């Protein structure tokens, strides 16, 4: 009989309660009701989301023997979600995205507050600030988690690494955007830093380190997390082009219009003939691309075998992550949870 | 004979050395030389600046008995400067400013890296990221300062407060920008949070708290810092309209073009007749305002007595800050330094 998995519903509820209580204390500033609109938009934004990073942190904690119901790790996990809100808000400004989680992005939502000619700029500016506040609050959650000095010492370097990695990964992504290339390896480097380490490896590390994990357990986290995280991003790339907006909550034209040089695009370019490559270069990055053009891009992805190749890459990495779990020195229910998560993350439709 | 002042040159040098050494360790990421351009722009940016916040933190430390040559407080002071770099980079994006410290702003400088049609957007996006990195590095400097648990516990709530105050102060400023009003008190609220607390009170508090200051010393910091900080911002408002670009390093059209509702503007509107008010509303906030229009605005500031009124507000606050020092329980050389600083901050031309 397979071991029980950890109760993701319970873990999620614990994290959500911390976040809701925390935000409930942030409704007023210097007696200025005007900030209520900002907080309202943020609370709504925070109520969405899959909570992947907190769940991984809590699983990492339990994997190496952390006890159930510990308040500090839940608060650290909530801090990761708060940091992620910061990252998403700023990402959406950089990508100029209109929707996120099925709703207007924060900078679009906030542009409605200011009744001036500059509402677009006001929306972007206040979204930059709201992201900055979320970053500040991520720190506040961390510093009010009641960590021991030993936990602090283990945690802070990992937090700094995680933040630096996702930011520089995003910078590499930004540099590659709008300049299509068949450099598949370069796209995988971006995936590794921007997603694999940030979304999977570091949250696991952080939870495990909180519970006093040694080098062997930390290495096992990496062996599982990096391939899974790469697969997660590759699935995201596919969903960005093939996903159903009703499931993903975001337009499947955004990535193409932005000219994102994903692994999918790089593989297609590498396998294209001259005519196909020319069409890809004409269509991907066109800010006015419509569904008909997107269909043409998808046809090239099919004809070049790029879509299937990405599916294979995902499956390879999924298998690799499972193999890493075979030898990981983790508690059985954590291992079972990570197996489930690997399946969900690579086969999801949203 | 007046007591000696602290050696600001030495303090500044100590902070600069920490910042330079820190940034020297950040020249490469994941073997990607592309980030070198980002780091180059940042290092150049960091080499400017008056280092007001670090100097205040070091003075606060010495004021309540912290010993000379302590490495931890220098690193905390450097962390404040790093955080300030973050704040300036994001401010310049929000204000869409072209110059800072006599050079192109970071988002303008970075827009040159990317040879695409979207170089403006690339510049803004990478500047958002570089600001985020500076925020991360401010935390890293703090967490590698070798603080004791007692110092940590005293410091972290002050850091969180400081960050929240400047961000929400900036948000209030953003909301007021482009909507001219004669609400002088509202402009003073923005000054208090965005500048007085952030630039003067919190750095002093942070230094003093590091040295174990009690409530009386903390209250003395506030009594000195808030009026001085308000005066500092009022001087900044005047310099924004009357300053010499050779001294200030920034255009004296930016604030007017952006439609900043400063105390100066609010006072002028309050004292204007209908014709003057109409001219102010037509000119301030015009993104294409030229020097001739700015001269007309300055004429209204003179005719309404607004410019002189701001000078009087500055002087009142300067005197108030000095009186607070008379009874402050500070070491004599720190008091003398703060007296000097009050004079410089309120009478500066840059």
Automatic annotation (TrEMBL), chains A, B:
<dbReference type="InterPro" id="IPR033749">
    <property type="entry name" value="Polyprenyl_synt_CS"/>
</dbReference>
<dbReference type="InterPro" id="IPR008949">
    <property type="entry name" value="Isoprenoid_synthase_dom_sf"/>
</dbReference>
<comment type="similarity">
    <text>Belongs to the FPP/GGPP synthase family.</text>
</comment>
<dbReference type="Pfam" id="PF00348">
    <property type="entry name" value="polyprenyl_synt"/>
</dbReference>
<keyword id="KW-0479">Metal-binding</keyword>
<protein>
    <submittedName>
        <fullName>Polyprenyl synthetase family protein</fullName>
    </submittedName>
</protein>
<dbReference type="InterPro" id="IPR000092">
    <property type="entry name" value="Polyprenyl_synt"/>
</dbReference>
<keyword id="KW-0808">Transferase</keyword>
<keyword id="KW-0460">Magnesium</keyword>
